[in-house]
């Protein structure tokens, strides 16, 4: 009788030999697959090998994506993007500058000026009212950076100067979302002041003539405290800017943050939203389309209009000055609303009729800046003739209307604002 080990040894050997054969077959097959993928030219189409693993398939897919991206880069390099002419500044003179709300109407023009001077510019915008195409001509430039960010959340960046322009500024926008307006002007301002404190940057707050409310003093000097309804429909913006100014001077006093405050009066020019909801955009848009030009109230209200490039010059002058108290930046030439509507109608050669509707609540009756401080401390005053500025703005709006019709879409509304909200607020 055979012993126990003699009976089971052959079976163990068979098992061992089978294992060796299977292992050899596996590695031989893998080598075949690997050679197939290696020998194939990466520039030719490649059917997936029958036994290719998921990892290998992923590698091929990534290679394809990289190849496509390289092709796009070559295409871009072949037609290299051109930028507006940029000045040269030495390392000592060149500054790193942050503009909040830099993709908006005023912010984008400010970015243009600073870029052309030769500074490094970082634009931050949440695109609530700002538009990427306002600054797209700078995208890709080594001195320019566009950051999609809401300043209600902290921002960590190293800069020398901060132009804090972020905030809805037209009535349809800030009345549509009053909470967002308050948050931007309070929490957002605190975040920017905190950033200025941390990196020892100088901050300029873009405040507004709305801090004067419906003024009882005419013209308005910076010493006037204002006449504001704290619970009215415009209060979210008016009071938001007032508290933003207060916070600036609190940080100046307690944390030695360098601050500048510009109280901006009515401004117009290219890149305004056509459905902005303010008189310049409303009148031009209605006149170009031969729609009734709508005046709210009797039209006896007065406004002072400045062209956007004048405003930008004033902001830069204030930022680089040694003056730290609030400064009015506006055009002291005063116009009645009805007179302005007639001027627009004649300029456009429109068939529109001028109609009157009930006045809006808390609408200021008079608005005219005293710019003595700006003249004295900034050596600044507006240069652009109003009619020249209106002509440029009308031409811009005409192009926007043409673009809208070619694209077969409705007129552009401020980003994030429902059309029905804009129409309702303008009508009421």
TrEMBL record:
Its EC number is 4.1.1.35. It comes from the Eukaryota. Residues 98-393 form the NAD(P)-binding domain. SUPFAM superfamilies: NAD(P)-binding Rossmann-fold domains (SSF51735). The keyword Ribosomal protein does not apply. GO terms for molecular function: NAD+ binding; UDP-glucuronate decarboxylase activity. Keywords: Decarboxylase, Glycoprotein, Golgi apparatus, Lyase, Membrane, NAD, Signal-anchor, Transmembrane, Transmembrane helix. It is found in: Golgi apparatus, Golgi stack membrane. It catalyses: UDP-alpha-D-glucuronate + H(+) = UDP-alpha-D-xylose + CO2. It is an enzyme of class 4 (lyase). GO terms for cellular component: Golgi cisterna membrane. It is a single-pass type II membrane protein. Its cofactor is NAD(+). The keyword Acyltransferase does not apply. One of its GO terms (biological process) is UDP-D-xylose biosynthetic process. Pathway: Nucleotide-sugar biosynthesis; UDP-alpha-D-xylose biosynthesis; UDP-alpha-D-xylose from UDP-alpha-D-glucuronate: step 1/1. Its main location: Golgi. InterPro entries: NAD(P)-bd_dom, NAD(P)-bd_dom_sf, UXS-like. PANTHER family: UDP-GLUCURONIC ACID DECARBOXYLASE 1, UDP-GLUCURONIC ACID DECARBOXYLASE-RELATED. Belongs to the NAD(P)-dependent epimerase/dehydratase family. UDP-glucuronic acid decarboxylase subfamily. This is UDP-glucuronic acid decarboxylase 1. It comes from Lingula anatina (Brachiopod). The gene is LOC106180039.
């Amino acid at each position: 009788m055979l012993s126990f080990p003699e009976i089971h040894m052959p079976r163990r050997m068979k098992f061992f030999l089978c294992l060796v054969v299977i292992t050899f077959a596996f590695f031989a097959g893998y080598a075949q697959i690997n050679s197939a993928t290696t020998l194939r030219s990466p520039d030719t189409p490649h059917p997936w090998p029958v036994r290719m693993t998921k990892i290998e398939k992923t590698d091929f897919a990534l290679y394809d994506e990289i190849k496509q991206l390289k092709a796009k880069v070559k295409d871009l390099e072949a037609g290299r993007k051109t930028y507006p002419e940029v000045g040269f500044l030495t390392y000592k003179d060149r500054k790193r500058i942050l503009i909040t709300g830099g993709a908006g109407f005023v912010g984008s023009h400010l970015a243009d000026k600073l870029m052309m001077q030769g500074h490094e510019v970082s634009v931050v915008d949440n695109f609530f009212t700002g538009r990427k195409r306002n600054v797209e001509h700078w995208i890709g430039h080594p001195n320019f950076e566009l950051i999609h960010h809401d300043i209600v959340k902290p921002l960590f960046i190293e800069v020398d100067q901060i132009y804090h322009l972020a905030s809805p500024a037209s009535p349809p926008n800030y009345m549509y979302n009053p909470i967002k307006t308050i948050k931007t002007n309070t929490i957002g301002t605190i975040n920017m002041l905190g950033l200025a404190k941390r990196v020892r940057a100088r901050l300029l707050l873009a405040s507004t003539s709305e801090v004067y409310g419906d003024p009882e003093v005419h013209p308005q000097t910076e010493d006037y405290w204002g006449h504001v309804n704290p619970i009215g429909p415009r209060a979210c913006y008016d009071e938001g800017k007032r508290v933003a100014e207060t916070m600036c001077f609190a940080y100046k006093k307690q944390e030695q943050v360098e601050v500048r405050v510009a109280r901006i009066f009515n401004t117009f020019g290219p890149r305004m939203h056509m459905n902005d909801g303010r008189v310049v955009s409303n009148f031009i848009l209605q006149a170009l389309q031969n729609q009734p030009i709508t005046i709210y109230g009797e039209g006896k209200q007065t406004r002072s209009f400045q062209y956007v490039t004048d405003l930008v010059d004033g902001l830069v002058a204030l930022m680089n000055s040694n003056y730290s108290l609030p400064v009015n930046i506006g055009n002291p030439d005063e116009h009645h609303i009805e007179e302005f509507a007639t001027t627009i109608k004649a300029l456009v050669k429109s068939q529109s009729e001028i109609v009157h509707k009930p006045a809006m609540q808390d609408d200021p009756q008079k608005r005219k800046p005293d710019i003595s401080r700006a003249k004295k401390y900034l050596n600044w005053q507006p240069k652009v003739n109003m009619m020249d500025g209106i002509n440029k703005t009308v031409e811009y709006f005409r192009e926007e209307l043409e673009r809208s019709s070619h694209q077969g879409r409705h007129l552009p509304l401020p980003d994030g604002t429902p059309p029905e909200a804009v129409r309702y607020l303008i009508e009421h």
